[in-house]
Amino acid sequence: MIHTLVKTAEYADSLPTNGRYAIQATHLNIFYGSFCAIKDVNLAIEPQKITAIIGSSGCGKSTMLRSFNRMNELVPSAHATGEVLFMGKNLYAPDVDPVEVRKRIGMVFQKPNPFPKSIYENVAWGARIHGFKGNLDILVEEALHQAALWDEVKDKLKQSGLSLSGGQQQRLCIARTIAIKPEIILMDEPASALDPIATLKIEELMRDLARRYTIIVVTHNMQQAARVSDYTAFFNMDADRAGVLIEYGPTTQIFTNPRDQRTEDYVTGRFG
Prior knowledge:
Blueprint: E1 23-32, E2 35-45, E3 50-55, H1 61-67, E4 78-86, E5 89-90, H2 98-104, E6 105-108, H3 119-129, H4 136-146, H5 150-153, H6 166-178, E7 184-188, H7 196-209, E8 214-218, H8 222-228, E9 231-237, E10 243-250, H9 251-256, H10 261-267
Helix pairs in contact: 3-4, 3-6, 4-6, 6-7
């Protein structure tokens, strides 16, 4: 449904992606000014699975993640070449509206960032500004249920989202993303600022959400990647410090029988 990616005032329900993959990068290069941060990446993401992006600091993991919903463009010097195909459309085509892209491909950030609004309004806000015409009460409750937060907040929906614990705030941000009804959820180290118990809840939530959504997560935590992901992409820096994709495959293969020595060195802790 290519038309859903061009600018529109209508709020659309979730639609299946076309083709074999949920989203696919083809010969993708991301630049900040003249610096190439991601070089010639080809990566096809499986639908309704969790794909982890791992690699040492500075290798372009977050840049790669943000390329899937054009968040890099919030940096004025950023630009891209190549293609990112979603729903049969190159997301970087001139007629594609990045706001529509970010509605279909949601983002959860490293640090919980609830709005200074009530718990209810945190979830309802995005749907409302995108023109949702249905029952907001039902939408908010469904999103909070999917984020495994409803039972903890159902009696205090008018309280500030900032009053919640760190782990609850992160699940509130996930509920806010879910309420827009995306096809894909991007997560940039979603548990790195949380304690072990809250981290476990986020990981359990990710596995549950993968029944409905495609999830792509950046993580520095090898144990986390091994626990939660179905597929893993390992990035490294080349001689020019550009991020390059070294190896991609099922997580069990990447962690137990990698094909590239650099992958084995990284996942076993020999470098990185």
